[in-house]
């Protein structure tokens, strides 16, 4: 289990109870098949743990391996600017095999966002700096790839709770 070099903060994409017992941080890549496999597991975990879990997503696009990961991450950030991060996040993972730009524009349309503005944003790399910040924070936290759970960090105020958290994962057969 890794330790976060950048603590969870207001710039993060968070889902769940901010006062939860557990915080789970995923450094994810929308094109990574292992992250895609982890996606429904995280959803089940959120459902089962409810208010006991705060889930945080940070971008970790492996650009050399996944040619569409960067634009997918930028698309999620673009959606976040309109309050639609989680909706886009879910669309990207549910459509992981179709992350070419033309599909990203369709996803924007589905959420009522401007495909033309997204196109301009991708050309200008509007959200690249924030994505790079997530990436560097992941590297400093010991993330060097995106297999599903080694890229997730359990952050707690009491060290022993981390062990309990991982036991909970096993209990749920996740």
Can you put this structure into words, describing what you see?
There is one protein chain. The chain is α+β, with helices and mostly antiparallel strands and 174 residues long. The chain has one domain (13-171): Glutaredoxin. It is built from 7 helices and 4 strands. It has helices spanning 33-49, 69-80, 85-94, 101-110, 115-124, 128-140, 159-171; strands at residues 13-16, 22-28, 53-59, 152-155. Strands 1-3-2-4 form a 4-stranded mixed β-sheet. It starts with 12 loop residues before the first strand and ends with a helix. 37% of the residues are buried. The model has no long low-confidence stretch (mean pLDDT 87).
Sum this structure up briefly.
With 174 residues, the protein is of the alpha+beta class. A 4-stranded mixed β-sheet has the order 1-3-2-4.
Question: How are the secondary structure elements laid out?
Answer:
Elements lengths: L12 E4 L5 E7 L4 H17 L3 E7 L9 H12 L4 H10 L6 H10 L4 H10 L3 H13 L11 E4 L3 H13 L3
Parallel strand pairs: 2-3
Antiparallel strand pairs: 1-3, 2-4
Helix pairs in contact: 2-3, 4-5
- The strand count comes to 4
Across the major sheet, the strand order is 1-3-2-4
Q: Give average pLDDT, whole number.
A: 87
Name the CATH homologous superfamily: Glutaredoxin
Main structural class: alpha+beta
Number of domains: 1
Order of H and E elements: EEHEHHHHHEH
Keywords, please?
four-stranded mixed β-sheet, 49% helix, alpha+beta, globular, Glutaredoxin
